[in-house]
Amino acid sequence: MKNIIGRLNHVGIAVPSIKAAVIPYRKIFGIKDITRPRTLPAQGVRFCFVNLPTGQIELIEPYGDNSPIENFLKKHPKGAQHHMCFEVEDIYAAKAHMEKKGAKVLGEPRIGAHGTKVIFLHPKDFTGTLIELMETPEH
Ligand code: CO
After folding, report:
1. How many secondary structure helices (H) and strands (E) does the chain include?
2. Tell me: the pLDDT tens digits for 8-40?
3. pTM
């Protein structure tokens, strides 16, 4: 049977400042392929992607007054791993599957950083790790 989840797309790291957070990736790892920061006002975040051969690291910084990562950063002021994201073929089918299996889905599908629909799964079902599911973008 095929897995409901596909490839690991990215690991999300919440940071107080994207500008500061990209420095070690450039200076220590020598990575040049880092996307320009963009804002998702509806989700209260700014983000950029560090492109690696096997996937991406998403650096996320709070945006606006009620950013969902504000509380997380209070607990981890220097930044920390925030979520990991797996690709799925169909976000609505994935949501129905997760609910049927008893996982707690947070909210309704919405447009994520890659321009495709995403949902989040509560960390309680995955040993403390917040899971993002995203519809596979057309590359
Ligand atoms: Co993400």
Report:
1. 3, 8
2. 999 999 999 999 999 999 999 999 999 999 999
3. 0.92
CA-to-CA separations, 64 to 23, 39, 69, 72, in angstroms, rounded: 24, 10, 11, 15
Residue of 58, 61, 132, 135 marked catalytic: 132
Residue 2 CA to its chain's centroid (Å): 23
All domains in the chain, ordered by first residue: 8-135 (3.10.180.10)
Distance in angstroms (rounded) separating the CA atoms of residues 1 and 134: 21
Ligand 1 centroid to Cα of residue 47, in Å, is 9
Whether 12 and 40 have beta carbons less than 8 Å apart is answered as no
